[in-house]
Design brief:
The complex is a heterotrimer of chains A (314), B (278) and C (331).
Chain A: E1 2-13, E2 16-28, E3 33-38, H1 44-51, E4 59-68, E5 71-72, H2 78-87, E6 89-92, H3 106-116, H4 123-136, H5 153-165, E7 171-175, H6 183-200, E8 203-208, H7 211-217, E9 220-225, E10 228-234, H8 235-240, H9 245-253, H10 291-295, E11 301-304, E12 307-309
Parallel strand pairs in A: 3-8, 3-9, 6-7, 7-8
Antiparallel strand pairs in A: 1-2, 1-4, 4-5, 9-10, 10-12, 11-12
Helix pairs in contact in A: 5-6
Chain B: H1 2-6, H2 8-30, H3 62-98, H4 100-115, H5 118-128, H6 135-146, H7 148-161, H8 165-172, H9 177-213, H10 224-233, H11 236-239, H12 242-270
Helix pairs in contact in B: 2-3, 2-12, 3-4, 3-6, 3-7, 3-9, 3-12, 4-7, 5-6, 6-9, 7-9, 8-9, 9-10, 9-12, 10-12
Chain C: E1 3-15, E2 23-35, E3 41-45, H1 52-60, E4 67-72, E5 75-76, H2 82-91, E6 92-95, H3 110-119, H4 126-139, H5 144-147, H6 157-170, E7 175-179, H7 187-204, E8 207-212, H8 215-221, E9 224-229, E10 232-238, H9 239-244, H10 249-257, E11 307-310, E12 313-315
Parallel strand pairs in C: 3-8, 3-9, 6-7, 7-8
Antiparallel strand pairs in C: 1-2, 1-4, 4-5, 9-10, 10-12, 11-12
The chains are: A alpha/beta (314), B mainly alpha (278), C alpha/beta (331).
Amino acid sequence: MLTVRDLVVHYDTPLGAVKAADRISFSLRAGERLGFAGESGSGKSTMALAILRMIKPPGRIAAGEVRLDGQNLLTLSDEDMRRVRLARIALIPQGSMNALNPVMRVKEQITDALRDHGVQLSGRQSEGRVRELLESVGLRAEVADMFPHELSGGMKQRACIAIAISLRPRVIIADEPTSALDVVVQKQVMETLARVQENLGASVILVGHDMGLMAQFVDRLGIMYAGKLIEVSPVREIFTRPLHPYTRMLIASLPSLEEKETFRGIPGLLPLLRDLPPGCAFHPRCPHSFDRCRTEVPTLREVRPDGSVACHLV
Amino acid sequence: MRYLRRNPSLVVGIVLLSALALFVIVGHFTVDTSKSRPLSAPAVRAPSAAHPFGTDRQGRDLLATMVAGTPLTLRIGFIAGFLGVGLGAVLGFVSAYYRGTVDAVIRGVVDIGLTVPGLLVLIIIAVSLRRGLTVDQMAIIVASLAWLNPARTIRAQVLSLRERGYVEVARLSGMSGPEIILKELMPNLLPYLAATLVNAVSSAILASVGLEVLGLGPIDSPTLGMTLYWVNFNAALINGWWWWWAAPIVIILVVFLGLFFLTVGLDEIANPRLRRAI
Amino acid sequence: MTALLEARHVTRIFGGGFFDRSSTLALDDFSLAIDGDRPSIIAVVGESGSGKTTLGRLLLGLTAPTRGQVFYNGRDLQKMSRAGGRAFRRDVQVIFQDPYGVYNPFYRIDHVLTTPVAKFGLATSRAGARTLIDDVLRAVGLRPEETLGRFPHQLSGGQRQRVMVARALLLRPRVIVADEPVSMVDASLRATILASLRTMNRDLGISIVYITHDLATAYQISDTIVVLYRGTVAEVGDVELVVKRPQHPYTRLLLSSIPLASPERTWMSESATAPAAPREAIETGCKFAGRCPSAAPACRQTVPPLFQTDRGQAVACYLYRGAPVLTEDHP
């Protein structure tokens, strides 16, 4: 349904162009939940914004295709792309609680979005639509008349979800939607997102760094490191049979609630994007690296049904 | 060097002020500044080879007057500006860092002081001290009000800075209040202080020129403002003695434009958000 | 046990001054004692609004309690002499959450290490200071040659946080208050920093108050855990007991809300709990009563005391009213 091929995003710095996202390729299937997990500098947020062509200078999309139902979004005119956003692909941005206009009531923000996309509704109709949307995200009808500062963090986030689904998009991209929320509220918001997705029959791309959240929410998971997609598999496989050493070590480093004092951090530091090591970006920290890793960049290839990895060991 | 290309205001400001400085320095070596006193030359002569800026009604050679008077005006500005920002900064830092009663008192004084029309106060002070005002006394009079605005703006800056994590860490590392002000807060405010200083110098010059034009300045000094006073006194405008008012006005323009561009340029350094993209 | 650092019936209210009608009760009658004889790691776990950060600041003496006192070696922090204050500052150190704001951008990171050395007279010469600093940097897994002389923006978040830990180590404190030390650090580096905290406790006898919202990391490094809800203690005790056999409904809610990084998907299959009630002022009774599935009328009338259900566990919930009430502040 959504196919990304060899997407490259550059950031221009005084020292030259830095590859924030390097040849990302994947397909999103209808109705699926696809996750992208990575640490700082992995390129996950950059990729999410690039799909929506929301990269601002000094960043720019340097190469690649993003096809939604066969149509390449990167070649559309600005006006056409604007129409695609929200109506066909919606974004729940990072810190979206701050994306709400503080001087507009919630209902106005929703109707604003609808009107911008040419939806003509009478006063009564739009009220009904707003109430419907709020109900679908578990917010009471009174919330429509409230201002953002009157809502709690979780409620604001759910309002953002309501805006995102107002035009019934086929793809919802959620960029760290719950990172600022408490764990109890996070569960409510994710449950809302799941319910909304099922009602719409849409697909979700969830971008984040919380592996636990990924494990419990997504169907397939992609792992990103230093701007590259290094592994993609069904989520169960990622956790039972991880292919890439980074994935394995990342999972091992997560604090467990079973056994105390299991400290297995990954030694070394995350590489700076402007100063990547030659060959595989992970090789300085990889306990299994060998000569080829230092010279040749591994490419993402399918090594088992539905499982791809970019590693010379496999 | 590359930065200067990105910050044209700074360049313009520096160029203008350097040109002025050059004028004054070269002038002091080439022109006889004693000719800035009355009765040094024939009166009311248009610009000529002997008197490139012409002469005024009291027989002053205007080139000499400008060469002698410009540094005097600038000196008033600098003294008043430095005193004003110095005092204002101390009060601003103390007020914002310690808060409480000290802050309330200082803030109260500053708020009230700023509502009183400054020029009026200066006029009253100048009028009361009519006997033989010197250039330095002029500077002190202007400085007496120049600290108010810096105190307020610097206080605002420090108020936001003091909440930073590194201030708390400094406190927990055993640093005392004054140490924190000097070593942690002030270095981060240096660009802002520089911009405030230039601003204060500019305002001080304006205030001093204003007082002088009204005749409340040091009567015997050839400062720019006093020259304009004599221009006014002798109705030079109506009499068509254009060279008399043109020279001081051009120089004042250069001073203010130079200081203005310098302020804008420094503001850009102090506030990275204003920086133009390459 | 000799209480090294102790909060006794501490209450902290924000606002509510003469002109300010609204006030927030951040901490309500909270008590905690850190044992000077047996250094341990105490985790204070809570969500936003639980009062955990306020507690940290109270223990560090950065804020004063509205009621109650904080004692250091038996002396009230608010009434300490200058010399006493210095000793306190040496013995009780901090690691803040944000590895960015804690560095003055004007100075190299050496500044944050050399200042305490100078202020507390830890070394007699420049060389001595340098050795000391090199040692603590190595102790947290950093290489002095690669770290010193750099500006904060030239180091990564994880490195900056480790420098903060090194700084805390410099003074050989007896207590470190760590407020969310790893939440802004990347996942792969968290374990390393947590491991250094544990080592500092084991090998150097430093007690740590580990403040966090992340139960998993709290479980990993702490011995005792205090679960805070809206300024009061919901449950406290030995970390194995509280995490494996949670008793308070809030603790249970917290644990069930954590998405586990495992192949089994049980997180969202459980029925949704009642949404959090909007923040009405709960004047009387248990603060959790509005959201509690087991709330009874008694819960809304008086605040439940801590019932000691086990030698190493106590719960503030009327469901356990059969157990004896905890009279001492801490097991």
